[in-house]
Design a protein that fits this description.
The protein is mainly beta. It is built from eight helices and 32 strands. It has helices at residues 75-81, 89-93, 246-249, 341-351, 356-359, 362-370, 389-392, 417-423, and strands spanning 28-32, 35-39, 42-45, 52-54, 62-63, 66-67, 82-84, 95-98, 101-105, 107-108, 111-112, 114-120, 123-124, 126-127, 132-139, 147-154, 189-190, 193-194, 200-201, 209-210, 214-216, 219-225, 230-235, 241-243, 278-279, 286-287, 292-300, 309-318, 321-324, 338-339, 374-382, 428-438. Strands 1, 2, 8, 9, 15, 27, 28, 29, 30 and 32 form a ten-stranded mixed beta sheet that branches. Strands 3, 12, 13, 14, 16, 22, 23 and 31 form an eight-stranded antiparallel beta sheet that branches. A two-stranded antiparallel ribbon has the order 4-7. Its EC number is 3.2.1.-.
Length: 445
């Protein structure tokens, strides 16, 4: 959610910020073959979750699905009139940290889900991923069907758009600047302007809607997962920044005309033929009832950070055992446990899905996009569009026997947000022990 306006701290007295903004501390480690050192960072809540009120008071600028038209008659006026407040991380949003561990609760009071970014000072921590590996521990045991505890990278500005957009006076300190490959149009502010034009309330979410503008950028999904299924998925875009039409945003029937590859090139072990690799008991190779160490390596053609990205590798560590990613077992896909251009092309061919990833340049484009650095995102969410069936069930549901349709063991009737929020409000995900470093330096048996 690329909320880009907000709290004009130069003009807004502290007395008008009802809740002080105190970022929960979350350290991580930078590693080489010689060892690891601790980096003291924190997390910041995405701007779209925050209370948006008048600059000179506490009148809501946005409530439920609606903008206050007297304050927000147009995009620029809204940016001038409205400000973001600080966040009560644990009390309102169910976000808590301790040392190197971050817990994201699903439902806290009236709040549902959350999204946070790793921040260092007043800018997001930037990660240069090529020829490096990223490792973390995760506990998904409390994530049932229909939920997603996600950890991923997006090509956001380090300052949250503060320097680029004159309407943004809050920056990374208040979680502004979000973008991803879905070109989200539910963001209240994009590019320093309020997304009020064409705003329509969601038919399934009483607290959301969409405007005419979307916020697009390359996305590297390290981990989209619950206790049933997981996927690692690169997405690329032809351009970064706002999209302004259904065609450029890839909305509805224009999905494959947009700036970005919304489908991505996913590696879900269940989807590609190994149904016993990952699941919630000891009969699976990876038992999701226990903490999992997840390692993702970004391999270049010449073994340097300036080379071209050619492979993404996944390794797991659990109970002292190093476990390689499951091999594919689908006719028409060369047996592999790595994501490469060849793997991406073959998966699109066997499923009949449009190869937007390849059309936009595949790994070559992804490699170029990574050179600017990427921002770490962690979130917990339910899915008001497709009930998370694309992750953990059968999707699309109208042809269950199609190659690649089966993605997990959840029922096709599962994942409805009303059901998940009512029946599993106490769900949560815990990310911990984050490490980033040279290849094979961040994990051991």
């Amino acid at each position: 959610m690329s909320l880009e306006v907000f709290l004009n701290r130069d003009l807004l007295p502290s007395s008008r910020t009802q809740t002080a903004e105190n970022h929960p501390a979350l350290s991580y480690q930078q590693c080489t073959d010689s060892g690891c050192t601790t980096v003291d960072t924190a997390v910041v809540l995405d701007a779209n979750w925050r209370w948006l009120h008048t600059v000179d008071g506490y009148t809501n600028c946005y409530t439920g699905q609606d903008w206050e038209t007297s304050l927000c008659p147009d995009a620029d006026t809204c940016a001038e009139n409205c400000a973001l407040d600080g966040a009560d991380y644990s009390g309102t949003y169910g976000i808590s940290s301790s040392g190197d561990a971050l817990t994201l609760d699903f439902v806290t009071g009236s709040n549902v889900g959350s999204r946070v970014y790793l921040i260092n000072g007043d800018e997001y921590e930037m990660f240069m991923l090529k020829n490096m590996e990223f490792t973390f521990d995760v506990d998904v045991s409390n994530l049932p069907c229909g939920l997603n505890g996600a950890l991923y990278f997006v090509k956001m500005d380090a300052d949250g758009g503060l320097s680029e957009y004159s309407g943004n006076s809050a920056g990374a300190d208040y979680g502004t600047g979000y973008c991803d490959a879905q070109c989200p149009q539910d963001l209240k502010f994009i590019g320093g302007e309020a997304n009020v034009e064409g705003w329509v309330g969601s038919s399934t979410d009483a607290n959301s809607g969409t405007g005419d503008i979307g916020s697009c950028c390359t996305e590297m999904d390290i981990w989209e997962a619950n206790s049933i299924s997981n996927a690692v998925t690169p997405h690329v875009c032809s351009t970064d920044g706002p999209c302004t039409t259904a065609e450029t945003c890839g909305t509805g029937d224009d999905r494959y005309d947009g700036y970005c590859d919304k489908d991505g090139c996913d590696f879900n072990p269940y989807r590609w033929g190994n149904e016993t690799f990952y699941g919630p008991d000891s009969s699976y190779t990876i038992d999701t009832n226990s903490v999992i160490t997840v390692v993702t390596q970004f391999i270049t053609d010449d073994g340097t950070a300036s080379g071209t990205l050619t492979e993404i590798r996944r390794i797991y560590v659990q109970d002292g055992e190093v476990i390689q990613q499951a091999n594919t077992n689908i006719e028409g896909i060369t047996t592999t446990n790595e994501i490469t251009d060849e793997f991406c092309t073959e998966t699109k061919e066997v499923t009949g899905d449009e190869d937007k990833f390849g059309e936009l340049g595949g790994f070559s484009t992804l490699s170029d996009e990574m050179d600017a650095g990427m921002v770490l995102v962690m979130s917990i969410w339910d899915d008001h569009t497709a009930n998370m069936l694309w992750l953990d069930s059968t999707y699309p549901t109208d042809d269950p026997d199609a190659v690649g349709a089966a993605r997990g063991t959840c029922a096709t009737t599962s994942g409805d947000p009303d059901d998940v929020e009512s029946n599993s409000p106490g769900s949560s995900v815990v990310f911990s022990n984050i490490k980033f470093g040279t290849l094979n330096s961040t994990y051991s048996a």
